[in-house]
Amino acid sequence: MTADCAIRSEESVVKFQNPLLLGFAMLLLSACATADPPSTVPFCGDGTRQAELGEACDDGNRNNGDGCSADCRVESAKQEWFCDNAQDDDGDGMIDCADPDCGNDLNCQGAKESNCSDGLDDDNDGNADCLDEDCDGRSCGLYGQACNAQQCQCPSGFSTESQCGDNQDNDCDGKVDCFDEDCLGQPACDDVESNCSNGEDDDDDGFIDCADSDCEAQSCGEHGRLCEGGVCACPGASFETNCDDDSDDDCDGDIDCDDSDCVGSPDCIGVESVCDDGLDNDGDSMSDCMDPDCASKSCGPHGLICSSSACVCPGGATESACGDGIDND
What we know:
Blueprint: H1 9-15, H2 19-34, E1 146-148, E2 151-153, E3 226-228, E4 231-233, E5 305-307, E6 310-312
């Protein structure tokens, strides 16, 4: 019973000698005794979205039919409910500030292209990624690629490793100096273990791959494995330690919520966790690449990623460069 409902019995005897008044008092006491006390615990319907509780929305009530259901799940929304949650709330293919519904939202005032490599027009100005002047000089790809003259390119301007002894990745392919195939046969690389995963003693010093000190901290396998202390290992861990850092912590090729290690993680509730299983993992009626959650995420082998609701190769349909060490198609 709350303080407002408390009525001392002796006061009742004095004030309610009249049978009618006494009956009314008894009804009041009964109602107060069953009243719920004010809650300080977050709950669905309190107007604050609690992602850790699995809420996809919270509009301050528990009514169906208004875009946010009684159990705080997004219904067939009529508008972009939130303009800063990286979700397509109304299923129109436009996310957050890219959706005209968010035109007056404070989060979108002076909006800029927030990601220069996701294939999306983040600020809804008609230009995506490097085609948007907002991206000039900003990262647009792996290994130092940046936007320049509306193209994603290596700042050096080189498509091959132009120098084999400057400790720089001149062509932005992730391979430096003698560890780049472009430098094979160059005098500077005669005495260097130039490949740390081919099972050969490239420099004839009696040490192979990671056992050769030349290979320390160099790539020796897929998904970020490096030579450490004479062995090829994952510099992170044996499992996905962080499900929201955009990194493959355990070098198994699956990042964050795409990794089975993250099943049940609060970071992955309401997120399309796998983008190539044909399932609607987050119950929003969109599966795999059709779900905006999967934008730019892996959707198949050999580098396929989700782009514009399809699973595509970001490099195109043909091998566009025959000496860059990359599987372009």
